[in-house]
Each structure stands twice: as C-alpha cells, then as structure tokens.
Fold this protein.
Amino acid sequence: MPTLVPMGVLLPDSILRNEFIAVLAAFVAINTIVYVTLAVAKILPKVYVRDWLSARNRRSETRSIDPDAPI
C-alpha cells in the first residue's frame, strides 16, 4: 500500500530552517516588492513636477521665430 505524503511538502524542515534559505527568501520577497512597485508605476499616469510649480518663471513674450506663436 502506498504511503501518504502531505501535499505541498517539497523539502525537509532541516533545509527550510537553514540561514541561507532565510536570506534567499528575504531577497526574493524584496525583489518581488520592487517589481510590483515598478509595474504599478508603469500603469499610473506620469506626474510632471512643472505642472505644480507656479508660472512666474515663464516668459511673458514668446522667443519663437514666429511672432504669432502662442506663449
């Protein structure tokens, strides 16, 4: 008769309690958070800081070759 093995157990407990595995798991967790943050940042619209600054630094006249160009 076959012996029953609990589902989901891939490695023995002695290997999973190793310090190297704990460091590797922490690295994978941080890496996952970074990639999720980058993916969400690509989905969101871009934010331009210039839109938040006042318009005092803008020129009152255009410096374009075309004198009727918008300011």
Q: What stands out?
A: The chain has a mean pLDDT of 81. The first helix runs from residue 13 to 16. The two ends are 86 Å apart (CA to CA). Residues 14-48 form one domain.
